[in-house]
Design brief:
Blueprint: E1 41-43, E2 48-50, H1 51-60, H2 77-95, H3 99-103, H4 122-125, H5 135-156, H6 158-179, H7 190-206, H8 212-225, H9 232-250, H10 258-287
C-alpha cells in the first residue's frame, strides 16, 4: 500500500466583529453566536451579548406608562424650566423695566381698535411676568408651581403638563378679555397655577380620592382673588380651562387611541380659546 502526501490542514479565517471587520474577536455573543469585539460586548445575565442583540431586546421592552398614557419620567424638568423662566423675567423687569411694556397683557392688545397693535402673544407672555411691587406674588406662584408640578408632571408627562399649563394661562387671559376692563393690564402665572389646582382636583375625582383638601385650597385662593389689585378673571379662566384640559387627559379611554384622543381634545380646547379670543376682540372693538 502506498501513501500520498500528507493532507494540509484546512485554512480557517480568524473570526472578526461584524460591526468592526478590522478587529479579530474570539469572544462570541451568547444569543446570536456572532463574534463581538470589546467595544461591542455587553455583559448579560449569562455571558456576553453583542450590542445589536442588546438593542433588539431593549426595543421589545415596553416603556412603563402612567394611567394617563405618559411615559414615566424622572425630574420635573418642565416645572423647573418654567420657574427659572419666571425668575429670569422678574429680574429683567427690574433691570430693564421697559420689558414689561412689551409682554404685559391687556384686552386692548387683542382688539381691532385703530392705532393699537394686535399682539395676541401677550396672552401667554404675561403669564411669565409678576408684580414688582409685591414680591409675594412671584413667591407664592413659584412655590405652588413647584409643589404641584412635582406631582402632576410625572403623571401627565412633560408634553401634556406644559400644554395644560399654557392653555390655562391662555384661558386666564381670555377671561380677562371677556370679563375685564379693556385697558387694564395683567401679569402673573396665577392662571396657570389655578389650572394646576383644577388638574389635581380632576385627577383625584377620577381616582375617587378625597378632594376636600384641594377644594379648600381652591376656595382660599378664590377668596384672595377678590382682593383689590388681583385679577379674579385670570384665576377663574385658568381654573375652568385647566379643568377642561385635565378632563380630556384623565377621562380618555385607555388603549391604542388614548394619546390621539387626548391631543385631539387639547387641540379642540385651543381652537375654542382662539374663537373666544376673536369674539372678545370684536367685543372690545365695539365697546372700546
Amino acid at each position: 500500500m502506498s501513501f500520498g502526501a500528507p493532507a494540509e490542514p484546512a485554512h480557517t479565517e480568524a473570526p472578526v466583529c461584524p460591526r468592526h471587520p478590522d478587529r479579530v474577536s474570539y469572544v462570541r455573543c451568547q444569543r446570536c453566536g456572532r463574534p463581538a469585539c470589546p467595544e461591542c460586548q455587553r455583559s448579560a445575565a449569562v455571558g456576553i451579548q453583542c450590542v445589536d442583540c442588546v438593542n433588539e431586546l431593549a426595543a421589545k421592552v415596553k416603556t412603563p406608562r402612567t394611567a394617563f398614557g405618559a411615559a414615566t419620567s424622572g425630574q420635573p424638568v418642565v416645572t423647573v424650566g418654567i420657574i427659572i423662566t419666571c425668575v429670569v423675567f422678574y429680574i429683567l423687569q427690574w433691570v430693564v423695566p421697559a420689558i414689561s411694556d412689551y409682554l404685559i397683557y391687556a384686552p386692548v392688545y387683542t382688539s381691532q381698535l385703530p392705532g393699537v397693535p394686535f399682539e395676541p402673544w401677550r396672552m401667554i407672555t404675561a403669564g411669565f411676568l409678576h408684580s414688582q411691587g409685591f414680591v409675594l406674588h412671584i413667591a407664592f406662584n413659584m412655590y405652588a408651581l413647584w409643589v404641584f408640578g412635582q406631582v402632576l408632571e410625572p403623571l401627565l408627562g412633560r408634553a401634556r403638563f406644559i400644554t395644560v399649563y399654557l392653555l390655562s394661562i391662555w384661558g386666564g387671559s381670555v377671561a380677562v378679555l371677556l370679563l375685564g376692563q379693556w385697558n387694564q393690564g395683567v401679569v402673573g402665572a396665577s392662571g396657570g397655577v389655578f389650572g394646576l389646582f383644577a388638574t389635581l382636583f380632576i385627577i383625584q375625582l377620577q381616582r375617587k380620592q378625597d378632594v376636600r383638601g384641594i377644594l379648600v385650597l381652591i376656595a382660599i385662593n378664590a377668596a384672595v382673588s377678590l382682593m383689590p389689585g388681583i385679577s379674579w378673571q385670570a384665576h377663574l379662566g385658568g381654573l375652568v380651562v385647566g379643568a377642561l384640559a385635565a378632563a380630556v387627559i384623565v377621562y380618555a379611554p385607555r388603549g391604542r387611541n388614548q394619546q390621539k384622543l387626548q391631543w385631539a381634545g387639547l387641540g379642540g380646547i385651543a381652537v375654542l380659546l382662539a374663537v373666544l379670543t376673536w369674539a372678545g376682540s370684536m367685543l372690545v372693538s365695539i365697546t372700546g
